[in-house]
Write a structure and sequence with these properties.
Strand content: 15-25%
Largest sheet: 7 strands, mixed
Oligomer: single chain
CATH class of the largest domain: Alpha Beta
Strand order of the largest sheet: 12-13-14-11-10-16-17
Bound molecules: NADP nicotinamide-adenine-dinucleotide phosphate
CATH superfamily of the largest domain: Aldehyde Dehydrogenase, Chain A, domain 1
Radius of gyration: 22 Å
Shape: globular
């Protein structure tokens, strides 16, 4: 079957590729299986050398990767370059930290010796989304490779050339054949790969819908999985917040990557005494964003990645307005192929898609609340639990509120971001398991107890 990639800035077909045949999939899985033992037995220094070379290879291919991301999913040039740099830094980070993260951990018992040892599992299937088409992959690969695992990637169907370029970056870094393989397959074929006994675990970054399907398939095979799913992060603005900082954070968090970020602030929960001032300034700042060609440096708002995603976002906006939300800015599709302008909805309330669902595009929802207690209640009144931020002139107060959020990451006076040093992941329907930091590298390892009496 032929799959087409459409450039979201132009509407033109960018690339056509064929899905792999069963024989091609078999070859990728067989190569992964035969590569695993030697890769797992290499020393950490040796695997770390390959990871450092991968960082260097990423930096060499920075411009190619940027152009490919921009053409396939519409990422702004400067955002794409920053994404590649972040991947290279993550490779260096894990190369440097793995010895500490993977060292045996002595445990005091009545035995002569007892300790925890970390062992790789084998081949992990990674199912990845298009929104950070390079970062999401390296966020998983850097720790997986240092752990001694091998990986096969099923990338989103609209970023096939990003997947192939990642394979080239790794090959040029000297990664042994078979340690990484790309599978150009559809979701049905992916279900077959999950059933394959050579695949020992699965990681998904994607939507709740994909999570139910993939976690269901992995569960049926009793295979470990990590689920990094959607979010509807709260951005809580208390009455003592520094509005300059809060507004700048709101614009960056909601409209970066055309709003297509799992940890973007989506629900702006504002205490009513400052709601007018915050909202007016937020609208003024968002109105300055310039939607346009993502390859041009003057553009500050990228188009959405696909026209169908833009249309679905607009349906959610219209349904919210029909139930009483007030459009303050934007809220109508742009004339371009997949563009949606910076949009703000006020008076968002329970029962509206903007309250209940994830809006995966450049639309901010404002919810006005009486006080701190109501802000916490509304922030937690969601099926999601990925991240949340709190803005207050009193950092201790902000921290007190942040600790009450039912999320995987709570930030005070800063926007939620992924940082290789901090674990990343969600609660509730935002998923389970963690990536990054020490917690992430242990997800796909056998945490083995050794006891000598
Ligand atoms: P998506 O439609 O779920 O796709 C993600 C990946 O899953 C793609 O490779 C897709 O392949 C695949 N997929 C979808 N359904 C599948 C199924 N039934 N079986 C096997 N594979 C399946 O999500 P998206 O639209 O690309 O990404 C947006 C979502 O990801 C948002 O909800 C966002 O919040 C979430 N996200 C979460 C994180 C996080 O770290 N928590 C980070 C980024 C994004 P095809 O393209 O071939 O359908």
């Amino acid at each position: 079957m032929t799959v087409e990639t459409i450039n979201p800035a132009t509407g033109q077909v960018e690339y056509r590729h064929e899905l792999m045949t069963d024989a091609q999939v078999e070859a990728v899985l067989a190569a992964a299986q035969s590569a695993f033992p030697a890769w797992a037995q290499r020393t950490l220094e040796s695997r770390g050398g390959v990871l450092r070379a991968t960082g260097a290879s990423l930096r060499r291919h920075r411009e190619d990767l940027q152009r490919t991301m921009t053409a396939e999913m519409g990422k702004l040039r400067r955002e794409a370059l920053a994404e590649v740099d972040k991947c290279a830094d993550a490779c260096d980070y894990y190369a440097a930290q793995a010895a500490a993260y993977l060292a045996d951990q002595a445990i005091a018992t009545e035995g002569q010796r007892s300790y925890v040892r970390f062992e790789p599992l084998g081949c992990v299937l990674a199912v990845m989304p298009w929104n950070f088409p390079v970062w999401q992959v390296f966020r998983f690969l850097a720790p997986a490779f240092m752990a001694g695992n091998v990986a096969v990637l099923k990338h989103a169907s609209n970023v096939p050339r990003c997947a192939d370029l990642i394979a080239r970056v790794l090959e040029e870094a000297g990664l042994p054949e078979g340690v990484f393989g790309v599978l150009h397959i559809d979701n049905e074929q992916a279900a077959g790969v999950i059933r394959d006994p050579r695949v020992v675990a699965v990681t998904l970054t994607g939507s709740e819908r994909a999570g139910r399907s993939i976690a269901g398939n992995a569960g049926a095979q009793l295979k470990k999985c990590v689920m990094e799913l959607g979010g509807s992060d709260a951005f809580v603005v208390l009455e003592d917040a520094d509005l300059d900082k809060a507004v700048a954070g709101a614009v960056a968090s909601r409209f970066g990557n055309a709003g297509q970020t799992c940890i973007a602030a989506k629900r702006f929960i504002v205490v009513e005494t400052i709601a007018e001032a915050f909202t007016r300034r937020f609208v003024e700042a968002a109105a300055k964003l310039r939607l346009g060609d993502p390859a041009h440096d003057a553009t500050t708002l990228a188009p959405m990645a696909r026209q169908d995603l833009r249309d679905e976002l607009h349906r959610q906006v219209q349904a919210s307005i029909a139930k009483g939300a007030r459009p303050l800015l934007g809220c109508a599709p742009d004339a371009s192929y997949a563009g949606y302008p910076a949009s703000i909805l006020d008076a968002v309330a329970p029962g509206m898609p903007a309250y209940e669902e994830e809006l995966f595009g450049p639309v901010a929802s404002i919810l006005r609340v009486r006080d701190e207690a109501e802000a916490v209640r509304v922030a937690n009144d969601t099926t999601y639990g990925l991240g949340g931020s709190v803005w207050s002139g009193d950092a201790a107060r902000g921290e007190r509120v942040a600790r009450q959020l039912q999320v995987g990451a709570a930030f005070v006076n800063a926007i939620v971001r992924s940082d290789v040093r901090l674990p990343f992941g969600g609660t509730k329907r935002s998923g389970f398991g963690r990536e990054l930091a020490e917690h992430g590298i242990h997800e796909f390892m056998n945490i083995k107890s050794v006891y000598v009496a």
